[in-house]
């Protein structure tokens, strides 16, 4: 391989550098010479050349000034700049809370098909009902039987109190049951009782005349088909005159201690719809709809909770929404408080 003589290139490069350096020095020297020449001889600004040289000199001086002199800002500008920087740094430091849009009412269904916030609503209901001082707590159907009687008689009285309770306040039902008990509330004795007397004993429960007939027929069936006891299935209970699904499920719970379904009365139906837990027209639809998603272990509790809640707070006409713990998540409560519910026109007599 041919060896390259690098020393030659080095010499050439060095001479080029020297030339450049010399040329730079030459330029500086020439410019200095010109300057000194003009310094010695003041420029004749009358001539074209003189004018051009003065102009060029001024341009050069301005350019150097712009480049070298720091930009002079007045105090106002400086203050504004500082203020702006402070504002930006403040904005950067401020905590910005990111809020995600969340469903606000229980009418919306969760991923599992249950109403949004239903557990919180239930917790609030328990809190509002913790004193257990509603009429249903003291005078409900499960408080009407003679606890010292035989189990068969207790079950019969339990069924009768449920039959009397339909369309009737707990206080009225309880009072009627106390009169019946005093009279002798047993299958044989009721069958022997005249309808008029029975009517007077149960009056003023709702539909008392019809209830006298239902009680008599039902008692007859119990004597003939069930040896004076009551049926132990919902299906057979519902075959008795004047006994519907609500009564049958409640009776199964209080008479037989079995939870077979949710007892939906007017309170449970109304409140479940207000809360958005169901969207139904009849208590029976409400029962089926509630049973679709409410855990079985809560079926018995929910009836008692909602009945007492309906008696004390969520009344049919004037619910006490502002004081209800659920008023921020209850769709009806939100509308009620904001006066957004449609006003029903008052019925005028004769029209
Ligand atoms: S907010 Fe009003 S309507 Fe809703 S559950 Fe409470 S009392 Fe009833």
Automatic annotation (TrEMBL):
Reaction catalysis annotation: 2'-deoxyribonucleotide-(2'-deoxyribose 5'-phosphate)-2'-deoxyribonucleotide-DNA = a 3'-end 2'-deoxyribonucleotide-(2,3-dehydro-2,3-deoxyribose 5'-phosphate)-DNA + a 5'-end 5'-phospho-2'-deoxyribonucleoside-DNA + H(+)
GO biological process terms, semicolon-separated: base-excision repair, AP site formation; nucleotide-excision repair
Keyword terms: 4Fe-4S, DNA damage, DNA repair, Glycosidase, Hydrolase, Iron, Iron-sulfur, Lyase, Metal-binding, Mitochondrion, Nucleus, Transit peptide
Subcellular location, record wording: Nucleus; Mitochondrion
HhH-GPD domain ranges (all copies): 164-312
Keyword Oxidoreductase: no
HAMAP family: Endonuclease_III_Nth
Listed name of the protein: Endonuclease III homolog
């Amino acid at each position: 391989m041919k060896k390259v003589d690098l020393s030659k290139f080095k010499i050439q490069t060095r001479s080029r550098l020297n030339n450049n350096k010399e040329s730079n020095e030459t330029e500086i020297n020439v410019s200095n010479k010109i300057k000194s020449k003009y310094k010695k001889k003041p420029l004749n600004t009358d001539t074209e050349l003189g004018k051009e040289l003065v102009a060029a000199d001024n341009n050069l001086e301005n350019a150097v000034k712009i480049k070298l002199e720091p930009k002079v800002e007045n105090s106002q500008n400086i203050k504004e700049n500082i203020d702006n920087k402070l504002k930006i740094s403040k904005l950067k430091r401020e905590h910005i809370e990111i809020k995600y849009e969340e469903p606000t009412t229980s009418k919306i269904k969760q991923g599992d098909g249950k109403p949004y916030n239903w557990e919180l609503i239930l917790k609030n209901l328990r809190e509002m009902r913790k004193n257990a001082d509603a009429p249903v707590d003291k005078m409900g159907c499960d408080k009407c039987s003679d606890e010292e009687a035989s189990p068969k008689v207790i079950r019969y009285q339990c069924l009768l109190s449920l039959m009397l309770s339909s369309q009737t306040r707990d206080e009225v039902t309880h009072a009627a049951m106390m009169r019946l008990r005093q009279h002798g509330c047993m299958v044989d004795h009721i069958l022997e009782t005249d309808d008029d007397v029975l009517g007077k004993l149960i009056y003023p429960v709702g539909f008392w005349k019809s209830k006298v007939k239902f009680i008599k027929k039902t008692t007859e069936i119990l004597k003939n088909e069930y040896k004076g006891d009551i049926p132990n299935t919902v299906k057979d209970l519902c075959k008795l005159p004047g006994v519907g699904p609500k009564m049958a499920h409640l009776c199964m719970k209080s008479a037989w201690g079995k939870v077979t379904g949710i007892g939906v009365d007017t309170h449970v139906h109304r409140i479940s719809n207000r809360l958005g837990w169901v969207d139904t027209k009849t208590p029976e639809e409400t029962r089926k709809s509630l049973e679709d998603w409410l855990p079985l272990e809560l079926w018995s509790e929910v009836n008692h909770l909602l009945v007492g809640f309906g008696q004390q707070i969520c009344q049919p006409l004037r619910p006490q929404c502002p004081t209800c713990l659920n008023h921020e998540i209850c769709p009806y409560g939100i509308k009620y408080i904001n006066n957004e519910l449609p006003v029903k026109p008052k019925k005028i007599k004769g029209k």
